[in-house]
User: What shape does this take?
Amino acid sequence: MTGTEAIASLYRASKLTKYFPVRRGVLRRHVGDVKAVDGVDLEIGRGETVAVLGESGCGKTTLGRVLARLERPTSGVLEYDLGQGLEDVTRTSGSDEFAFRQRVQMIFQDPYTSFNPRQRVGDAIAELLSVHGMDSSEQRADRITEVCEMVNIRPEYLQRYPHEFSGGQRQRLSIARGLSVRPELIVADEIVSALDVSIQAQVVNILRTVQGETRVSILFISHDVGVAQYISRRTMVMYLGKVVEVLNSATLHERAEHPYTQALISAVPTMDETARRERIVLRGDVPSPINKPSGCPFHTRCSYVMEVCRVEEPLLRAARDADHLHQVACHLPEPPAMSPLRRQ
Assistant: This one.
């Protein structure tokens, strides 16, 4: 889904944080926190794909796990539409928790470790269906066949064990298992990062096709700018646990304003030997999430740093391109010029 049309909200996170305590010494004293997610606001619409983009360690996987309720947030509010509009699901339990877990499914980066190596893959999918109330073995068999067709897996393969499949097949089976309970939202965590480029294209195209058929929403976590742009409507860029830019994926390369987003785009290789884009090389290392710098989290590596960047943290604001999807957290009065793709 592309464009700027309004979409009904399915899931909203407000001021979301997730801190992991650091303890040291014999008495295991609390000496600090790893601020993996630090004040994130996010909204996902029905049938929408939102990409979360950033370097390793920026907090995007932790964000996905918190949204899937595999980790409890340190603070903040999670609101999900359970059928009566957005409701607070931050601390749900019992039947509401069970209903939420059926509606939100997570697909993990490593498909091998997400399956029990001693269990046939068909039994793994059937077990999930049984847990979520499908008691009839015939109904389970029909649903498993249906989702396997969605991801191009032959039903007879379901009697095999996880080690008998290739990486791409295992990832497609992970998608099938997630789709089997008819979720409303899929959190896909780096699901193509370990696959060959041709297999990546197959998996991404399967997700797009499934979304077109089922209207499932997708939170697509990735470090690959090209894949994120291809599959998503909006892209949210994270750095050191914070959101630094949110923009329309279709205009990602042309309208990125934050220096960090521009650096990520400049690092994307091109297959065209006659085309060149000036590479933006970030200086220094990513600061520790335990001891974050004051002010803008990116100021220690930014070429355009000003004094205000060192003392005041920028808030997300509307960007200058008049696109209501575009927000940026930066103090620069004018966005730095993006180096065009030049042909030689």
About this structure: The radius of gyration is 21 Å. The longest strand covers residues 29-45. The chain is about 30% helix and 25% strand. The chain has a mean pLDDT of 89.
